[in-house]
Write a structure and sequence with these properties.
Layout (H helix, E strand, L loop, with lengths): L1 H13 L1 H31 L6 H29 L6 H34 L4 H29 L5 H17 L1 H16 L7 E4 L4 E7 L3 E5 L5 E5 H4 L4 E3 L7 E9 L5 H11 L13 E7 L4 E9 L5 H19 L11 E5 L2 E5 L13
Antiparallel strand pairs: 1-2, 1-5, 2-3, 3-4, 6-8, 7-8, 9-10
Length: about 375
Amino acid sequence: MFESIREAWGWMISHPWFLGLCLAAAAVVAALLVDLLCSRVLRAATRWTKTKVDDEILAYMHGPVRTSVLMVASLVALDILLTEHPWKGHLINVVYTILIVMWTIYLIRISRTIFNTLKERHRREHGARQLLPLFYNLVILLLLVHGGYWILKIWHVNVTPLLASAGIATAALALASKDTLANLFGGVSVLVDHPYRLGDYIVLGSGERGEVVDIGIRSTRILTRDDVLITVPNSIMSTTTITNESGRVPRFRVRIAVGVGYDSDPDQVEETLLKACEGESEILPSPKPRVRFREFGDSSLNYQLMFWIHDPGDRGRITHVLNTKVLKAFREAGIEIPFPQRVVSYHHRDGKLEGRIAIQNTGNKEPQP
């Protein structure tokens, strides 16, 4: 039996075109069988998942799997039929190049499917809409560079000078665009860390306060209460102190400081301040408004009225309303709001009445007769 097989193989070697046809037929059958086997096994595994991404990836896989089996069969045929042919090495390189190009395209299609699914799933998140295209382009670039590198290696192209030139060009580009890169990485950190979101009221370390109206890769735009649009580079946003007044809860506390005379009744003051908050629909009922006696001032007892509102952007207007109501309520209740006072003392010196007066806001400390 073995002798018959050996004779048949020798006959086929002596007739290379017939051997080539047999190898081609075997390659087609093997490609179909491998494709069928992979499809059945992987399709059974994808039934346990709820997403359709794996089904799309599986649908894309049929072509690359069949082509890969045919290319491997071509390598075997080239090795058998063209043992010492001068074009054998070039033909093998062509086969490997086709495999690399095919699988690079397949991975790019998979990446596009995955990123489109993530983009649709997080379409309401501003950070995801900004970051996903950036990461997608980065992945595509890496796949293309990876495929190009191996194609050059297969064709025995020396990539060392190319890598050195690319390194020099990258260093020059980085130096020339360091501010742009700083803003880019700052934008990525802002979008990943989420120190603020669209619609939040923030206060920067330099004092600017406003509503966040846009978060981009390069900069963040803030609209102040004066309707002035401020554009701040993300390199600054990622390093400065940011106070997010919107926070993670939908409320914002407003503090109103007021001083009353030393002869005022503390209970009456607290009751009057709390009554000033009644009837204001924009003041949240929970937590309830509260009054705190903060300190004994130079000329007054200093109190603080605290209440919560929903939108930090309404702080200025509501403060105006409450200040007006507190002033009217104090006048009706007979509670004094004192102004700063100075004590002037006189003493006799050489039969004359002399004294020293501290003049406020002038800095004049000279004795006045």
